[in-house]
Amino acid sequence: MKSFERLVLAYLEAITGPLLYPLQFACRANRSVDDAVNMGLHYILQHLDKPGTYARILFVDFSSAFNTIIPDILKNKLSQLSVPTSICQWITSFLTDRQQLVRLGKLTSGTRTISTGAPQGCVLSPLLFSLYTNDCTSKDPSVKLLKFADDTTVIGLIRDVDESAYRQEVEQLSLWCSHNNLELNTLKTVEMTVDFRRKPPALPLSPS
C-alpha cells in the first residue's frame, strides 16, 4: 500500500505543483522550512527599512490539523485543481470508513470507524492537507500568509498604524477555518510584534 501511496503522491505533485499557493513551502521541489523562514524575514526586514512601519506576526496553531480533513470538501478542492475524477474518488475512498484501534502494551481497544482526517504517518497526508488549505490565502498585499504544511504564519506589514488589512485577514482566516472544519487553537496561537519605533503602542489581538 505504501508503494501505491507514493505513486499517487508523485502524480498529485506533478499535477498540482504549479497550482499550489506560492507561499506554501511544504511538498514542493527545492523548497524547505528554511526557505519559509528566510522569506518571512525578507518581507519583515524589507518593510522595516521604511519609516513609520512595524510588523505583526501571528503564529497559527490548528487543533489536530490532519484529523480535520473532510473527504467530500477535499474532493471538491482537488477537482478545482484539475485532479482527475478517478483519483479524487480513490482519495475519498481512502480517507473514508478507515478502521482504527489503540494498542497499549497487551491491551487493545475496540475498533472504531473513522471518516475524517488523513492517517498519521501516511506519505500522502502532508500534501493532502496542503491541498485542502490551498485556498486559504491572503488577499491584501500588505499581509503575507506563509505555510509549511499545517504550520501557518500571518505577517502583517503595518504602516502609519493602519492595521485594518491585518485584522481583516485574521478574521477571514478564522472564518475560513469555520467553513472547512479547522479549529484555531487560541492557547497555542501566539503573536509577536517587531517594532523599531521609539514608543510603540500596545497592540493586543485575540483571534476568535
TrEMBL record:
Residues 1-208 form the Reverse transcriptase domain. InterPro entries: DNA/RNA_pol_sf, RT_dom. PROSITE patterns: RT_POL. It holds the Pfam family RVT_1. This is Reverse transcriptase domain-containing protein.
